Amino acid sequence: MHGPASSGWLLVALCAATGAYCLLRMRSSVVEQRRAAGGEALMGFGMAVMAVPAAVFTPPGWVWTALAVVFGGAGLHALWAARTGAGHLHHLIGAGAMVYMAVAMAAPAGQGHGHGGSGTPLLTGTLLLYFVAYVLVAGVRLVPVAAVTGVAEGAGWGDRPELARACRLSMGIATVAMLLAV
Fold first, then answer.
1. Which of 29, 36, 49, 112 is the most buried (most CB within 10 A)?
2. pLDDT: is 19 or 29 the higher one?
3. Contact partners, residue 40, CB within 8 Å, separation at least 6
């Protein structure tokens, strides 16, 4: 990513912390929450790798290919899961955005932004519109959840809906920041 290294490191920290929290959520007793948390942990850690400032470390070219393959697989998994409900559609779009950014960053140096490449402006703009709308809606949904007192006594970190929504919101914000850098 281009821009000041300090903002890049903040994005790395946000994504890594979100990925780590999602790993904690995988200990939930609710199967669907565990599945969603696993995909979100993968997304958080993948975004952390992609957000490392290029001035500090430029990974070898195979890293971008590996990330594109991993997120392509995550997208196929989300597509398979989407047949049972629309909740997985966001994961499919997120995985697609990650593949897109990995491919854009794998482009030879000098052809645009990021670590090397430049994305297609129409696709970048479409993804930006989607994720900005997602962030706004997720932010609005987060407000009433924090006021709910119905969280069970002794509920673990993985069973707190407001924290799961905050996790998704932070990854949406990070995706917007990363798309702006493509």
1. 36
2. 19
3. 18, 19, 22, 25, 91, 167, 168, 171
Decide: residue 145, CB within 10 A, 0-12 exposed, 13-18 middle, 19+ buried. middle
Phi, psi torsion values for 115, nearest 5 degrees: -75, -20
Integer Cα distance of 66 and 50 in angstroms: 12
Structural domain boundaries enclosing 166: 5-181
- b/e per residue, 49-78, with b = 16+ CB within 10 A? bbbbbbeeeebeeebbeebbebbbebbebb
Domain count, the chain: 1
pTM of the entire predicted model: 0.81
Dihedral pair phi/psi, residue 110, rounded to 5°: 90, -5
pLDDT at 147 over 70: no
Are 39 and 91 in contact, with CB atoms under 8 Å apart?
Answer: yes
